[in-house]
Design goal:
alpha/beta, 8-stranded parallel β-barrel, 11 helices, globular, binds pyridoxine-5'-phosphate
Amino acid sequence: MQPLGQLRLGVNIDHVATVRNARGGAYPDPLRAAKLAEQAGADGITAHLREDRRHISDADIDGLMEVLSVPLNFEMAATDEMQKIALRHKPHAVCVVPEKREERTTEGGLEVAREENRLAHFIAPLREAGCRVSIFIAADRKQIEAAARIGAQVIELHTGAYCDAHAEGRFDDRDAELAALREMSAYAHSLGLEVHAGHGLTYDTVAPIAAFPEVMELNIGHFIIGEAIFRGLTPAIHEMRRLMDLARTGETA
Ligand code: PXP
C-alpha cells in the first residue's frame, strides 16, 4: 500500500515549559519554541495542559492560540475543566489522553471501551465546536472499535511500549509491539479513523512508524527538546523530518 499522504510532524513543546518551571521564571519561553518549530517546518504544535499544570500553563495555551499560524493540538484529560477550556479556545485539534497525577508521563492509552458512554458525551460538544477529536490509545482492537463508536475522527497510537522495548534492548518485545502497531494502524484506517502515533519516539525509533502507510501524523516532544540542547531546535526538527521523509519513501537513513 502507498502512503495515504504526506506525514505531518507535530512538535510537542511541553518540556520547554518543564525547564522554565524548574526555576519558576519566564524562560525558556514555550511560545518562542513553538514559533521556531513552526519556522523549522513543524506541521503543528502539540501542548498538554495537565491537571496539575506541571509544565504547560493556562497562559501558555492562551499565547499559543494567539501566536501560532500552524494548528494547535491541545492534549487534555477527559475532565469538565479541560472541556471548558477547549470549548473556550476551540483549537484545531483536541487529543484526549489518560492522566494520573502520580505518573511521570502519559503511561498508557485511554480506556475507551469501559467508558464509552461518558466519552461519547464528552467529545460530542468538542466535535460540534469544530475541533478534530483524537483519542490516545494502545494498539488494541477493542479500544479502536470503541473510539470509532464514540465518534472520534482520529486515534493516536501510543508508541511508548515499542520505544521502551527498543531502548532496553528487548528486541523480540519491540518487534511484537511494532507488529501490533502496524496491524492496528491498518485496522483503524479500515474503520474510517485517521491514524496518528506518538510517545517516546527518537531518531532511532521513528522510521518504522513513519513507514506505516496509514499513519498521517506523528507527535514528538521529549526527544526533540532534549536533542535541541545539543544541536539547536531547528536542526533537531530538521533531522526528525528528514528521517520521517526517508522512511516514508521506503529508503533507509
Ligand atoms: N502524543 C501524546 C498523546 C502524548 O501524550 C505525548 C506526551 O505528552 C506525546 C505524543 C509526545 O511524547 P514524547 O514527549 O515522548 O515525544
